[in-house]
Request: fold
Amino acid sequence: MGLIILFGIFFLGLIVGAPVAFAVGLAAVVTFLYEGLPLFVAFQRILSGISVFSLLAIPSWPQKLSATPDHSVMVLPHVLRRTQH
Reply:
């Protein structure tokens, strides 16, 4: 059940337009509360994961695929249309 809550809150956050990092953090905290784990453990794991270099790429790649710097041309729909043919 905890896994369903984790992914449910994560995707709900993405649907309402929250940044990926906030959706991940909110989903983790809600799941920790549901499972009855102390929040101290959650924050300790979050802070220990900040130093992981690969996590820096998570917020940037959706932005690069979705629009140009001036947000005038959407790139992702064109990419998806080409992959469906």
